[in-house]
């Protein structure tokens, strides 16, 4: 048990290290030289760097650690330790890359920097999240507020990002940079989602039909071998049965045709399969 736990923790810290390096490179290569900001406290640290003589790494620690101390009792010891490690590591790496190694910008172009910087930040954050850690205080604030109120964490993070972007309007003369910063935040969110949940080309189908046996046989023959029959009761206390399956998008039209041929009165609900675990996934 201890060996498996140790291996898991070593893997988590490797993910944190890798994610922190990628995130720091995204900031140094794209964001700092092009004066673009991102969301959360990392964006606030960049904003404070642009208006002061202190480094981004300094502001990362200065902004995040007080928030972490404030919220540590809500996060759990293991998560708090990883988060402290992640914040300090990212802060140190940003300063080392920018001030010691003096890495130069890959491109001086707001549009390209916002796109590729957003991708790198997203990759870095995704690996940090996979390691059950956090890279910023906005997540901490969101968790604490959601525990104390009925406000959802996503809404808190959105409000924080909104005020950071709004503040940047008073720092940058170029409104276009502010707008491209918003685009960069969106690209980061999409990148995180793709890495954590994958790019599944599948749909979840709930099929309510009176021809359960016929449909089950046809689905096994022409769609795939996996599915679940769920029994239930209708609003008028009648017996109902539903077939739950996950299919590839390319087979969706075939399923529609089978349903139309066998039971035109059947009811289909089709939704996205955002994440799948088990059976090789």
Automatic annotation (TrEMBL):
<dbReference type="GO" id="GO:0005886">
    <property type="term" value="C:plasma membrane"/>
</dbReference>
<feature type="transmembrane region" description="Helical">
    <location>
        <begin position="12"/>
        <end position="32"/>
    </location>
</feature>
<protein>
    <submittedName>
        <fullName>Membrane protein</fullName>
    </submittedName>
</protein>
<feature type="transmembrane region" description="Helical">
    <location>
        <begin position="52"/>
        <end position="72"/>
    </location>
</feature>
<feature type="domain" description="DUF2179">
    <location>
        <begin position="228"/>
        <end position="278"/>
    </location>
</feature>
<dbReference type="InterPro" id="IPR003740">
    <property type="entry name" value="YitT"/>
</dbReference>
<dbReference type="InterPro" id="IPR051461">
    <property type="entry name" value="UPF0750_membrane"/>
</dbReference>
<dbReference type="InterPro" id="IPR019264">
    <property type="entry name" value="DUF2179"/>
</dbReference>
<keyword id="KW-1133">Transmembrane helix</keyword>
<dbReference type="Pfam" id="PF10035">
    <property type="entry name" value="DUF2179"/>
</dbReference>
<keyword id="KW-1003">Cell membrane</keyword>
<feature type="transmembrane region" description="Helical">
    <location>
        <begin position="178"/>
        <end position="196"/>
    </location>
</feature>
<keyword id="KW-0812">Transmembrane</keyword>
<feature type="transmembrane region" description="Helical">
    <location>
        <begin position="156"/>
        <end position="172"/>
    </location>
</feature>
<keyword id="KW-0472">Membrane</keyword>
<feature type="transmembrane region" description="Helical">
    <location>
        <begin position="106"/>
        <end position="129"/>
    </location>
</feature>
<dbReference type="InterPro" id="IPR015867">
    <property type="entry name" value="N-reg_PII/ATP_PRibTrfase_C"/>
</dbReference>
<dbReference type="Pfam" id="PF02588">
    <property type="entry name" value="YitT_membrane"/>
</dbReference>
<feature type="transmembrane region" description="Helical">
    <location>
        <begin position="79"/>
        <end position="100"/>
    </location>
</feature>
